Amino acid sequence: MADPRDPTSKPMRATRRTAMGLLLGAPLLGACSGVQQTLTNQFGQQPPPDGAQPQPQTQAVGNGSVKVGLVLPLSAPGNAGVAATSMKNAAEMALAEFNNPDIQLLIKDDTGNPQGAQFATQQALDEGAEIILGPLFAQSVPAAASLTRARGISMIAFSTDSSVAGRGVYLLSFLPESDVNRIIGYASSVGKRSYAALLPENAYGGVVEAAFKQIVSSKGGRIAAFEKYGADRAGAARTIAQALTGADALLLADDGDSLASVADALTAAGADLRRLQLLGTGLWDNPRVFATPALQGGLYAAPDPSGFRNFSGRYRTRYGQDPVRTATLAYDAVALVAALARTLGGKRFSGEVLTNPSGFAGIDGLFRFRADGTNERGLAVMKVATGGAQAVAGSPKSFGA
Fold first, then answer.
1. How far apart are CA 155 and CA 142, in angstroms?
2. 242-275 CB burial, b ≥16 within 10 A, e <16
3. How many whole angstroms separate alpha carbon 300 and alpha carbon 183?
4. Is 226 within 8 Å of 196 (Cβ atoms)?
5. 85-102 pLDDT, tens per residue?
6. Is 14 within 8 Å of 305 (Cβ atoms)?
7. What is the pTM of this model?
8. What region, left, alpha or beta, does residue 336 occupy, with left being phi > 0 and alpha being psi -120 to 50 degrees?
9. What DSSP string runs through 81-103?
10. For residue 351, which of 164, 107, 80, 165 has the smallest C-alpha distance?
């Protein structure tokens, strides 16, 4: 997988509009905000199962002529299996809400490991799948992709590790790069030119660092200070606090409790956070952040919350419980292939179709696949306030050229 957003986060309620239509010549799916963390770590590298291997699950849903494989870790232990079940439910809900889709969904359990993903993908392909949705975990994607590439079949995977994208593998996940590009782009548009960043020394922090340095340079800005931290947040906070006088914006990218600790460490080190515009990623969409005084007024990039509220209400009505945050990925993937199957011919799942520059609209707003397999999302800019997030800039209605 996945998403650095918490699969067990609690959503809200809603109403429904048409699941599909056409947007700028591309399928419209439906319309997020997201509390986050991980299933097991930032890029979903799952732990080995404990004890006996679970029995793989398989199921076919729908009776359409277009067969679509959905590969998820349904029997994996812990949060991974919980998330996978919620995503399976969301996929079935997308089929139910789409008007007479010509789709049969071949749901396969990869048991949460690369070998299982390869076996599940092989099963789906042998049963006639024209496209594979999933897997969820980064390390399972290459194993499954070795089979889809050999047959010239596209895969839409749910990992947030962009290193597994490309050559027919497209990621429909919340990529940190999109968050950084949106928030730095917005800050630049309101006059910020000198940036600092304090980031965690982990895989997520590494991705954010690369995106931060690239987008600041492309916007003609400068990096006044940069530090990373491990277990010792205080030391890194002291170092960067001394260099913040040359910055007018500070990027912080961590989850709720960690971010609050970082803010406290910066304050203790003498940093005047009120003088700076604090900037963040989608990991900021967390009640712990909203309750932290030092972070009030900070800005972060995230999908528009209304889509997830609406989706959550429908999901709760149907299943009697809240969806995991990543459930919308499965919904949008199934809705997308259903729309393509209806509107396009034999090339419906080709790279040319999937990389339509106009993009698609889903539960979480606009998205489009790049030729390298990564995605770009149309994100809103949200402001931290004690009562929750407030929209400062809405998500775009269309992608630029």
1. 11
2. eebeebbbbbbbbbbebbbbbbbbbbebebebee
3. 6
4. yes
5. 999 999 999 999 998 899
6. no
7. 0.84
8. alpha
9. HHHHHHHHHHHHHHHHHSSS--E
10. 165
CB distance 314 to 17 below 8 Å: no
Residues 6+ away with beta carbon under 8 Å from 78 = 39, 40
Q: Using DSSP bridges, classify how beta strands 66-72 and 103-109 pair: parallel, antiparallel or unpaired.
A: parallel
The pLDDT tens digits for 20-30 are: 333 333 344 43
332: tokens are 């949008």
Q: Which residue has the tokens 């010792």?
A: 232
Is residue 220 exposed (0-12), middle (13-18) or buried (19+ Cβ within 10 Å)?
A: exposed
CA angle (14, 359, 334) in 5-degree steps: 55
Give the Cα separation of 95 and 4 in Å (integer).
26
Amino acid sitting at position 317: T
What is residue 302's three-state secondary structure? strand
List Cβ neighbours of 240 (8 Å cut-off, separation of 6 or more): 196, 198, 225, 226, 227, 266, 271
- Measured in residues, the chain has a length of 401
Copy the structure tokens of residue 63.
């009776």
Buried b (16+ CB within 10 A) or exposed e, 5-41: bbbebebeebeeeebbeebeebbbbbbbbbbbbbbbb
